[in-house]
Specification:
Helix 5 links the parallel strand 5 and strand 6. Helix 8 crosses helix 9. An 8-stranded parallel β-barrel has the order 1-2-4-5-6-7-8-9, surrounded by 5 helices. The chain has one domain: Alpha-Beta Barrel (TIM Barrel). The chain is α/β, with parallel strands linked by helices. It binds SN-glycerol-3-phosphate and calcium ion (CA). The site of calcium ion (CA) has 4 residues, from strand 2.
Length: 234
């Protein structure tokens, strides 16, 4: 089962910072997931539109200039990274899941990522775009049909993974609270991969692996790997 570091290795370093990405790389995570907001013509790593939870700033990201946001402390003296810095940091170390939180200009994002990956020799197959905003995912697929997408849900829809199949997604990524065997089997039946977030409890990891889940998003990737290895040796 593929292990993504969730917001970087966010149990061990401030979420969505370069330190969290580097920690995930050091832990040999299979992939790293992080959250992206658009700020004017730039893209930054942050989970919330409001600054106060993860930085020493206040107000919304749109109320500050980029230079002001970049001077904030995102924890342990870390700054709010740009998407380019994140891609430079990860490079070819592992797979990259860019979760789109607040993106207004999808063509700009796709060009930004394409140009960055080109200059860093990161294959497009290393990038997975995901979002709870399925309209954004649809736009990505319209502009770049070969782009890999993961459709997020915090629910268990009546037709399970049907919405992800309609979007031509590779992954359906669902909240661990609502994932059951039926959901996993439905995704598989539709030819989709199943991802589950956020999974840090060994019992959940083992159960999801037994059900055939393809990927999990963990705040502590190393602990997750050890828990799975432990259960395999029992
Ligand atoms: O991509 C899975 C997960 O990160 C979605 O939820 O709130 O942690 O961004 P959230
Ligand atoms: Ca996320």
């Amino acid at each position: 089962m593929f292990i993504y570091a969730h917001r970087g290795a966010s149990a061990l370093a401030p979420e969505n910072t370069l330190l969290a990405l580097k920690t995930a790389i050091a832990q040999q995570a299979d992939g790293i997931e992080f959250d992206v907001f658009q700020h004017q013509n730039e893209f930054i790593l942050i989970h919330d539109r409001w600054l106060h939870r993860t930085t020493n700033g206040i107000g919304s990201i749109d109320s500050l200039l980029l230079e002001q946001i970049r001077k904030l402390d995102a924890g342990e003296g870390e700054t709010v990274p740009t998407l380019l810095e994140a891609l430079q940091c990860i490079g070819l170390s592992c797979q990259i899941n860019i979760e789109l939180k607040g993106v207004r200009d999808v063509p700009l994002l796709l060009k930004y990522v394409h140009d960055a990956c080109d200059s860093l020799s990161i294959p497009s197959s290393n990038i997975l775009y995901s979002s709870f905003d399925h309209h954004l995912l649809k736009t990505i697929k319209t502009i770049a049909p070969s782009a890999r997408i993961g459709a997020l849900t915090a629910n268990k829809p009546i037709d399970y993974a049907g919405f992800a199949e309609v979007l031509d997604a590779e992954f359906v990524n669902a909240d661990v609270t609502f994932v059951d065997k039926n959901f996993v089997y439905d995704a598989k039946r539709r030819g989709l991969k199943m991802g589950v977030y956020t999974v840090d409890q060994p019992e959940d990891l083992v159960r999801l692996k037994e059900w055939g889940v393809d990927a999990v998003f963990c705040n502590n990737p190393l602990n997750a790997r050890l828990a799975l290895a432990d259960s395999a040796s029992d």
